[in-house]
Fold:
Amino acid sequence: MTLPKATELPIGAVIPEPGSTRRNTTAGWRTLRPVINDERCVRCQLCWLYCPEGTIVEKKGVFKVGGRTYDVRYEINYDYCKGCGICANECPTKAIEMVPETP
Amino acid sequence: MMVQKTKQVEALTSNYAAAYAVKAVDVDVIAVYPITPQTTIIEKLSEFIANGELNAEIIHVESEHSALSAVVGASATGARVFTATSSQGLEFAHEVLHIASGFRLPIVMAVPGRALSAPISIHGDYSDVMNARDTGWVIYIAATAQEVYDTVIQAYKLAESVLLPVMVAYDGFLMSHTMEPVELNDEEEVRSFVPRAARPYTLNPRRPVTMGPLASPDWYYELKYQQVLALREAYKAAAEVDAQYGRRFGRRYGLVEGYRMEDADYAIVVYGGAAYGNAREAADRAREAGIAAGVVRVRLYRPFPTEEVLKALEGVKAFAVVDRAIMFGSPAEGPLYKDIATAMYIHGVDKPALNVIHGIGQRPIYVEDMYKIYAALRENPRRGVVFMGVRI
Structure:
């Protein structure tokens, strides 16, 4: 996403229309992004539980991973994930890796 | 032949001159908290409102922080606003100074400069004003009551054209409480000179906007850079407003004023009323004694009129900058000196410049002191800081 230049922004840091937070994402300051290795994930739900922003998404379905079948998978909503790394820290199987964000 | 209009001349203090200018531009909201030596501005404005001469809402607040906050709120709705403060009051409002400029609100504030505590001093210097110099406000420093009147009117025109708050500073007590003849403009003329312009964004329930949102690292820098650009624009606009004012009302000052600078070898650079008056008198005496002396007065302090200052000092062999504020622990303790030294360094100009700190807490600056500076400049042009008038 390309952000507007200094000269293109409304004067005085005004947000000129209501409801812009529905459109604007809030992950712009993230420097590291968590990446889940589905092979190692044991579906313990700890990342989902610990995420302070609620950006770990629990997906229902039938997921065949290796020789096993799960009825749930965890994904990250990168529009709102701030890259704090709590999920990676808490993951007991080290299934989440923090990867540098590319500009 | 031109028809001579009868001019209205009143004996006014600089504080009253500011109040008359505020009345002339017809403000909507004034928020006030009394602090010496600012109080008499608000007393006069209250009188105008009580007499029905000015139709404005006056908000009595419980502090200067609240006073500036109240005018920030009022200005955000599109109202034309005014407030005034001094010294600790300006310090107390310091946080809101950044908010006013960040919101790009055309607030006009009068500041008769006063020393800062501790120890308590109610007397004049420019410590308070100089502490506000990096807040994104336009800062004028006037030298006469007449100029205070003219500058407050110019300030509204400038503020509303570039969307920046403007501070009009002048000497506490030495100007705020002393009377001078002031020529007042016809109020209808003033109002046609400063018409109310539509603002891009105001608080309006029919057109909702958000003011003061959070800006994460991906937005903040750009918004602050906008303010840098706005102050650069204000630099050009201030000269233009001054020229327009001169054409309409017959008085203009420029951003930098010179006295006997045409062929001066030695100059004193000053700001404010007392220093300018005494420096001019000293320059006259120095000229009688055969020293080619001149005075430069910086009228617009922020944005800093680099070009004009460099041009004014182009021909001199050496100069001194008289500062009435102290930047503790700085390489040279005078704020104006620092600005001029920076301007000269950037433009590759190198000449002896002395920083004279004087008039702190209204320590009297005598004409003789100024004369001594000229004599010292001629005898031994050098660099460095001199604390004049202090017992050491």
